[in-house]
Amino acid sequence: MRSTAVVLTRASRAALLARLGPWLPRGWDVEAHHMTVNLGPAAGGPAAELVGRVVELRVVSLARGPTAVAVGVEGPVPSHNARPHITLAVHTAAGGRSRDANGLTDWAPVEPFTLHGRVQEID
């Protein structure tokens, strides 16, 4: 299914994993790819006018559940998710899916740092 997202630059993904990679459980699938804006094409979402632009996302929190680990982010791009986030890793062997990060509730603050990504449609 097509969705609209802020896709991290290679450098930002590497920086995110360098900083928080040690917190990821072994054996989980690492994602750290994007912040979902909305499901479906950009034209139907809140960031249609931002497609193609590089934006800053500020990492402000971290949460871990039984099947997903994510960072909470703040930035200029609205998201349909209650808490904008980037899914870092998923425990797919236990049936986890990326969307499990939407249900995380135990968010702990982290020392903020900035990432960059491009608003685009992805499959």
Would you kindly provide a brief summary of this structure?
The protein is mainly β and 123 residues long. Helix content is 9%, strand content 43%.
Outline the structure in words.
With 123 residues, this protein is mainly beta. The chain has one domain (3-122). The chain is 9% helix and 43% strand. It contains one helix and seven strands; from the N terminus they run βαββββββ. The protein has one helix at 10-20; strands spanning 3-8, 29-30, 34-39, 54-64, 68-74, 85-90, 108-122. A seven-stranded antiparallel β-sheet has the order 2-6-5-4-7-1-3. A hairpin with a 3-residue loop joins β4 (54-64) and β5. The longest helix has 11 residues, at 10-20. The model has no long low-confidence stretch (mean pLDDT 97).
Q: Strand order, biggest sheet?
A: 2-6-5-4-7-1-3
Low-confidence stretches: none
Q: What is the overall number of helices?
A: 1
The profile of the biggest β sheet is: 7 strands, antiparallel
- Total beta strand runs: 7
The SSE string, one letter per element, is EHEEEEEE
